[in-house]
Amino acid sequence: MKTISLTIDGKRISANEGEKLLWVALGNGIYIPNLCGLQDNSQPPAACRLCFVEVEGKEKPVTACTETVTDGMVIDTRGGKALRLARTAFELLMSSQQVDCAHCAKNGSCELQQIAHHLNIKLKSNRFRRILRELPIDDSSSVFTYDPNKCVLCGRCVWVCRERLGIGAIGFAYRGFQRVVTTFAGEAFADSKCQECGECVRVCPCGALVFKNDKTEEEQT
Amino acid sequence: MAINNKEVTTTEEQAKVRQKTRQILKRFGRKQGNLVPILQKVQGKLGYLPREAMLEIAKFLSIPGIDVYSVITFYNQFRLNPPGKHSIRVCLGTACHMKGGYITLDAWKRRLGIDRGETTPDREFDLDSVACVGCCVMAPVTVVDAKPQGKVEPTKVDGLLLAFEIEREKKS
Ligand code: FES
Ligand code: FES
What secondary structure letter does DSSP report for A138? Predict the structure, then answer.
């Protein structure tokens, strides 16, 4: 594989040809907000609209998860246009999000906190009207708890369950504001095809899917 | 909308559903692209898409059940619950919305004890919303058994339900 070199935020970096910019940046310690991508998914959904960056020579910001790196590329991850788009996307996302960090198992390791910090905005913004979903929590699995009110619909769990593991226990249902990650016929996890492997919990960026016994899990891994 | 057909279907009905679904599937190829036409045919025959039908279809197309559920819940035309004897369609079009159609919908929900897209356990009523039925002057409109009723405010909801009750009593 050919090695190429590019510049991200003034730092010279070498990468393999064909790689996506997001993973190159993250692999080199440069953080770009992201929720919907997974490195082994070769068809990024590019749905969260958080990973915008500016590329020299391109008029409009691009999503880093879909941008293939090229030799000599010059990237600015902190450009004003890109950050403005990312901030708006994040604020819209958070406007239907239950924020209760003090009582949340992911407090401290939550990617939403990381993104808010990086974008220098609050988790709870007043820019958009807040509408919460008020969906029931599924506590039926012996391994994890699923709180759809905290779900950001990034789809990582859905992809992992279906594509990486070939199980297909979860997917998206409904449309618009009602959209939700759920099991077949909206059954409780305990009654579904779920095999309780916990892989979905490991990729969940926020507090939607959490292990029931968080401590033991950390010790195990 | 949630599935409430667990309460309303018996094992016998389930077997019948599976058999009828298989009958319909015979006319289709096992292409994933056939999913929507299959769903339309099955709903056309059964009036809704029961759980057993979804599972049969998923097996036939070799896709996870959740994919079938995903498509069904995405489109308004598909129903997860059996149709009731009487259909209640609350208009939430622009005019009806301005006239408080959503309050009317809440009244129906409360009186029938079900949500949008559901059927009462006795299968008397099913409830759903529609977008503008073309008689905005009568807003807020509720279409009851295909007949648009005008100025349906919560008190009229009670009136309409009372009329059904009286009719039922007369028959029995
Ligand atoms: S990670 Fe690029 S759009 Fe979500
Ligand atoms: S908006 Fe209800 S009939 Fe037109």
Answer: B
C-alpha to C-alpha distance for A98 and B16, rounded to whole angstroms: 44
Ligand 2: lining residues by beta carbon, under 6 Å = B 91, 93-96, 132-136, 139, 141
Residue A1 in contact with residue A16, Cβ under 8 Å?
A: yes
**What is the residue type of B72?**
I
Instruction: Domain A133-221: give its CATH code.
Output: 3.30.70.20
CATH number of A1-132: 3.10.20.740
Q: What was the ipTM of the complex prediction?
A: 0.89
For residue B94, the ligand 2 atom closest to its alpha carbon is 1
CA distance B7 to A86: 46
Name the pTM for this structure.
0.87
Distance A151 CA to ligand 1 centre (A): 16
How many whole angstroms separate alpha carbon A218 and alpha carbon B108? Answer: 49
Q: Is the beta carbon of A15 within 6 A of some atom in ligand 1?
A: no
- Residue A112 Cα to ligand 1 midpoint, Å, equals 14
The pLDDT tens digits for B60-103 are 999 999 999 999 999 988 999 999 999 999 999 999 999 999 99
> Do the Cβ atoms of A186 and B74 come within 8 Å?
no
Averaged pLDDT for residues B43-71: 96
Taking only the tens place, the pLDDT of each residue in A29-45 is: 999 999 999 999 999 99
Are B90 and B50 a contacting pair, CB within 8 Å?
no
Q: Please report which residue ranges of chain A form alpha helices under DSSP H.
A: 21-27, 80-94, 111-119, 156-159, 199-203, 214-220
